[in-house]
Design goal:
TIM Barrel, 8-stranded parallel beta barrel, two-stranded antiparallel sheet, 11 helices, His_biosynth, 1-(5-phosphoribosyl)-5-[(5-phosphoribosylamino)methylideneamino] imidazole-4-carboxamide isomerase, isomerase, EC 5.3.1.16, HisA/PriA
Length: 250
């Protein structure tokens, strides 16, 4: 099995570190930490990667965190995957030039798969993470909302993930929106299914992680990594402990 990566997450809105509950912008928790200081704290704890999200841009477009991204890259040794408001190939190129190691593409991948397929054909697949974040509908189908999860999407997770896997996708971030910010545990059933169906993908689990047992369970489910947000910010889970759990043999 390839290296399992623990991604501490920093979500930024109006310059502040925040967490949303189930993607709801009206259900926000703000934290006193400065985003750059927090990134340095995570680097000092041993993180190799950071997951950085521009929540303002996720809803309105126009990535605003390039200055922060640049300082994180200059002042830490962290690799950074980042997104929010990525609407075009020019946006992807701008983030790569600003220092991103991977660019997270979400709504665009759902709304305009033909454009993203063309983009993937022109860029190194290793520098793209597709965020196919999902919510189960009343019929039990995994749907893909867009625009920072604020708009219902008609596409289904299975179908779109299969199409992108056939195009050479390597990194898939999948959040079960119902568990995001809830500290209710990751949806291991979903991740076991995705990892079994698409063994060529490094699936990043996101949403609900509470403790080291959840980190270990995501790895055992076959995931290539896990994104940790609220549990770290609330002090419920220590990053050093999470990193140790991620590195421990299954």
């Amino acid at each position: 099995m390839s290296e399992f990566i623990v991604y501490p997450a920093i979500d930024v809105r109006d310059g502040a570190v925040v967490r949303l509950r189930q993607g709801d912008y009206a259900a926000e928790t703000r934290y006193p930490a400065d985003p750059l200081a927090l990134a340095k704290q995570y680097a000092a704890a041993g993180a190799k990667w950071l997951h950085l999200v521009d929540l303002d841009a996720a809803r309105a477009g126009g990535y605003t965190l390039a200055p922060l991204l640049g300082r994180i890259k200059r002042e830490t040794r962290l690799k950074v995957q980042t997104g929010g408001g990525v609407r075009s190939e020019a946006d992807v190129q701008a983030l790569l030039e600003a220092g991103a190691d991977r660019v997270v593409i979400g709504s665009l991948a759902v709304r305009e798969p033909a454009r993203v397929a063309g983009l993937m054909g022109r860029l190194d697949a290793g520098c793209i993470t597709l965020a196919l974040d999902t919510r189960r509908d009343a019929e039990g189908r995994w749907r893909l909302p867009v625009h920072g999860w604020t708009e219902a999407g008609g596409r289904e997770l299975d179908i779109l993930a299969a199409a992108y896997a056939d195009l050479g996708l390597r990194h898939l971030l999948c959040t079960d929106i119902a568990r995001d910010g809830m500290l209710s545990g990751p949806n291991l059933e979903l991740y076991r299914y995705l990892c079994g169906r698409f063994p060529q993908l490094a699936v990043q689990a996101s949403g609900g992680a509470r403790d080291v047992a959840d980190v270990a369970a995501a790895r055992e489910a076959g995931c290539g990594g896990i994104v940790l947000g609220k549990a770290l910010l609330d002090g419920q889970l220590g990053l050093a402990d999470a990193l140790a759990a991620g590195a421990r043999p299954c």
